[in-house]
Design brief:
The complex is a heterodimer. Chain A has two domains: 73 residues, no CATH class; 142 residues, no CATH class. Helices cover 74% and strands 0% of the residues of chain A. In chain A, α1 packs across α3, α2 packs antiparallel against α3 and α7 runs antiparallel to α8. The two termini of chain A are 75 Å apart. Chain B is built from eight helices and no strands. Chain B folds into two domains: 94 residues, Rna Polymerase Sigma Factor, Chain: A (Orthogonal Bundle), CATH 1.10.1740; 54 residues, Arc Repressor Mutant, subunit A, CATH 1.10.10. Chain B is mostly helical. The chains are: A mainly alpha, B mainly alpha. At the A-B interface, α1, α3 and α4 of A face α2, α3, α5, α6 and α8 of B.
Chain lengths: 250, 186
């Protein structure tokens, strides 16, 4: 009944507003509800005078002038070609890409030579190294990482050669950075001495390594050149020896 | 299948204004100034305050028009929504209560005989005082529907309510108003 009354009231008000019916005609259409409906339609009619409310003409003119002045002084930024929904999608996509990049970088830190994510790991290390205030310290941390990788892949010749090559490249970076930071020689000496001992198992297979590791070797110009040669040789060797492996992985 | 809708002249003006067309926005101002002023005035009941808030409503509309989307909410419902929020902000921040001073300017005031002007003002003043006794929601629904002529769907979108709730508020508001008018008349 209440629901009927709501709907009938709605219908009557709409038809009266459109001028299709008078209140009395509407009441006649719904005699069973007319008793409750009559005071409601009468109350609605009482609001009629409010429709005549209007602004003062002087406010209309002055308000319009102020508005136009404001518009000219504050040109509204043009709406984006892309609506808010598109911007939300873009923001979500950017967040997703950022999350994936972060997760991928974190995951890549566990990668070993030969893994799919190993290049990602090296790339993230290059970014990290580029923002370090002390490059030599950064190189030593990365050298430790290469050392750990070599131990993890020990006994897998096709991977060992990749690891040794990366290690050699890092020593070359270290030598370059050490030239501008001679004060870190003793720290480098200690680390490389430990590395020389830790990598002794590799010297039989990769004899050039023994010529690379050690502070004297690193600082000696002639050996530094040898380092580059060895590194180039190792890189070439990696390319030749690693190709079948990469093809197998793909 | 997606339902297409013919673009009305008003939609074209809104789009032009959204692109920064001053004249198009000025036209919209002319169209809706009385409606917005009336809506605000019926809540704040002070002419100067109503004028200030009305001006702010159009400034806000200009600033936000770039974000207005044609999907769902008609322009006038969007404008009334800004007005409603402006009134809410006014009551949140005002420091003193404005006295109830009914100063009514009517559309045809200049052309009406003085006796009719007086009669109209007395009637309007009486209804406004009666409306004060309704709840905020009831007052909003009755004003938007019966004074401004918005349909139920537009009122629902302006107030963020369901259409069924709007119909219920309309009925309860009119019942309460009828009771108040009857009591005052006795």
């Amino acid at each position: 009944m209440v629901s009927d009354m709501k709907d009938v009231l709605e219908t009557c008000l709409a038809r009266i507003e459109l001028g299709e019916l008078t209140p009395e005609e509407c009441l006649a259409l719904y005699p069973e509800l007319s008793q409750g409906l009559r005071p409601l339609l009468a109350a609605a009619q009482k609001l009629e005078p409010l429709k005549q409310l209007a602004v003062k003409p002087e406010f209309r003119a002055s308000g319009r002038a102020r508005l136009l002045e404001h518009i000219r002084n504050h040109p509204r930024r043009r709406s984006s070609r892309f609506g808010p929904l598109a911007l939300r999608y873009a923001a979500s996509l950017a967040t997703l890409v950022f999350a994936l990049a972060t997760a991928g970088t974190a995951l890549a830190q566990q990668a070993l030579p030969g893994d799919v994510l190993y290049s990602w790991k090296l790339a993230s290390e290059r970014v990290w190294r580029s923002i370090q205030s002390n490059r030599v310290d950064a190189d030593l941390i990365l050298a430790d990482r290469r050392l750990n990788e070599l131990h993890a892949i020990q006994g897998l010749p096709e991977l060992e050669i990749l690891g040794v090559s990366e290690y050699a490249d890092l020593l070359r970076e270290l030598r370059s950075d050490l030239e501008t930071d001679q004060g870190r020689v003793s720290a480098v000496n200690q680390v490389l001495a430990a590395h020389k001992e830790a990598l002794s198992d590799f010297f039989a297979s990769y004899s050039f390594l023994i010529n690379l590791i050690g502070i004297n070797a690193l600082l000696a110009l002639s050996q530094a050149e040898a380092l580059e040669t060895a590194s180039s040789t190792a890189t070439l060797f990696v390319l030749l020896a690693g190709l079948p492996f990469f093809m197998w992985r793909l | 299948m997606r339902k297409s809708r013919a673009v009305s002249p008003e939609d074209q003006k809104v789009k032009a204004a959204a692109r920064g067309d001053e004249q198009a926005f000025a036209d919209l101002y002319d169209t809706y100034l009385d409606n917005i002023y009336r809506f605000v005035y019926l809540r704040v009941e002070d002419q100067q305050t109503a004028e200030d808030i009305t001006s702010n409503v159009f400034l806000r509309a200009w600033e936000k028009l770039g974000d207005y989307q044609f999907r769902g909410v008609p322009f006038r419902a969007w404008l009334f929504r800004i007005a409603r929020n402006a009134v809410i902000d006014h009551y949140r921040t005002r420091k003193e209560t404005a006295p109830l001073e009914v100063v009514i300017n009517t559309r045809d005031e200049q052309h009406l005989p003085v006796s009719q002007q007086v009669g109209l003002r007395i009637e309007a003043e009486g209804v406004m005082q009666s409306m004060q006794q309704l709840t905020e929601d009831q007052r909003n629904v009755l004003t938007l529907k019966l004074v401004h002529g918005l349909n139920t769907e537009e009122v629902a979108k302006t107030l963020g309510k369901r259409q069924g709730a709007v119909r219920a508020l309309q009925m309860r508001g009119l019942q309460a108003l009828a009771k108040i008018i009857k009591t005052d008349g006795e």
